[in-house]
Specification:
This protein is mainly alpha-helical and about 300 residues long. It has 11 helices and 4 strands. Among the domains are: about 70 residues; about 110 residues, Cytochrome Bc1 Complex, Chain D, domain 2. Helices cover about 55% and strands about 5% of the residues. The strands form 2 sheets. A two-stranded antiparallel ribbon has the order 1-2. A two-stranded antiparallel ribbon has the order 3-4. Helix 7 crosses helix 10.
């Protein structure tokens, strides 16, 4: 009890010293930053200390109570007594159960038949049981190996079937062809694969060109900041498909913006047809040729280029 009273006195003394130190540090004319006065902080600290003290006192009381109780009634020591040896035959009778679907599926034998399954050899007196793998498991295991050999021969050795990479390429080609057919049937959905030369679009294409393209390519396509569109030299291809693609996606590294979001596919097709109509028009003050000379890839393209109107 003297030790406890001494500890309480030391704690109370430390709290009072801390409170006085806080009063000397914090100016009397200014409240603490948390909005509480020094007196309120001291009260809170004392309450917290009281709660901690109550908890410690409770724990000490319980400890002394247990020690006192143990002193009055000490726990007797009992001598360890070994259990009786296990009666194996009796244990087998208790564990004997009727066969069910799981025992049949896993080919499990009753435990009383264990003596008939012992393999006639032992290591340090330890015997091994003959537990064969269930027949259905062997069927699956060897069947998987046979399937793997057949798959290897069919797809990789004999190459009778398409592998995954080849099947992917085939599907991509088929998807591109389906897309081309779909777009060819849709008037408003034109892309770089389905665009065609159409003289009926030239007039509408000129209006769009005058409103968006003359700042870079000139009023007659002679070229200003951008290249000349009237000669047979092209930077990114001179077919109707390549011109459409250049207008649609642009060439950002050379200052050609993408018009995909500003124009519909029909408008891009009209502009592309108008640009194709400028071939050979030879306007005044035309910019020097740039890029490579465009050579039609097929007879059909050459016929289309020759039949396109000249300006």
């Amino acid at each position: 009890m003297k030790k406890i009273n001494l500890s309480m006195a030391m704690l109370l003394f430390s709290v009072s010293v801390f409170a006085k130190a806080g009063e000397s540090i914090v100016p009397t004319t200014k409240e603490p930053s948390i909005g509480l006065s020094t007196t309120e902080l001291l009260i809170i600290a004392l309450l917290l200390f009281a709660i901690v003290l109550l908890f410690v006192a409770t724990m000490l009381f319980r400890a002394f109570k247990i020690m006192y109780k143990e002193k009055l009634n000490p726990t007797p020591y009992h001598k360890y007594e070994a259990e009786a040896p296990l009666d194996y035959e009796e244990w087998l009778k208790q564990k004997k159960t009727k066969p069910n679907i799981w025992t049949k599926l896993l080919s499990l034998k009753p435990i009383e038949e264990e003596k008939n399954m012992i393999i006639p050899h032992a290591y340090d007196g330890i015997h091994e049981l003959n537990n064969p793998v269930p027949s259905w498991f062997n069927f699956l295991f060897y069947g998987t190996m046979i399937f793997a050999a057949g798959y290897l021969y069919y797809y990789h050795i004999g190459e009778y079937g398409e592998r995954q990479d080849t099947a992917y390429e085939t599907e991509m080609v088929k998807a591109a062809e389906d897309k081309r057919k779909f777009l060819s049937k849709s008037v408003g959905n034109i892309d770089e694969n389905s665009v065609k030369l159409d003289q009926a679009q030239i007039v509408a294409g000129k209006a769009i060109f005058d409103g968006n393209c003359i700042a870079c390519h000139g009023e007659h396509g002679q070229g200003l900041v951008g290249p000349n569109l009237t000669d047979e030299f092209w930077l990114h291809g001179g077919s109707i498909n390549e011109v459409f693609k250049t207008i649609k996606y642009g060439v950002p590294e050379k200052g050609m913006v993408s018009w995909e979001k500003s124009m519909s596919s029909k408008n891009i097709s009209e502009v592309a047809n108008y640009i194709m109509s400028l071939q050979g028009s030879k306007p005044a003050n035309a910019k020097a040729p740039q890029g490579e000379k465009y050579e039609p890839k097929s007879v059909e393209d050459s016929v289309k280029n020759e039949s396109s109107p000249k300006k």
